[in-house]
Design a protein that fits this description.
The protein is an alpha+beta fold. It is 25% helix and 15% strand. The termini are far apart.
């Protein structure tokens, strides 16, 4: 694996529960997905690696994805921030 990127599934899950009753889903699952235009290498993410813990109430995984190395360094601690700025906001401030 070379690196990681962001993938955004734009389907409206918050609307789906309302929309599918009583007749089933209409347009709530219209596909729309975007992929970030950059890839962050695993080497660049190395300082952010951390232990990965499964919540106690979750079922145990199958043996092949449950390795000691993944439990000790299988997660990446990152934060994502988004700042939206419209033309109207930019003009007002």
């Amino acid at each position: 694996m070379f690196g990681l990127c962001l993938l955004n599934d734009w389907s409206a899950r918050d609307i789906q529960a309302w929309e599918y009753q009583p007749l089933g889903p209409f347009l709530a699952k219209s596909p729309a997905t975007s992929v970030s235009p950059w890839i962050v290498t695993l080497e660049a993410l190395e300082p952010y690696r951390c232990a990965w813990r499964r919540p106690a109430q979750d079922p145990a995984p199958l043996p092949y994805p449950d390795e000691a190395g993944l439990r000790t360094r299988g997660a990446i601690d990152s934060e994502l921030g988004v700042w939206l700025r419209s033309a109207n906001f930019r003009d007002a401030y």
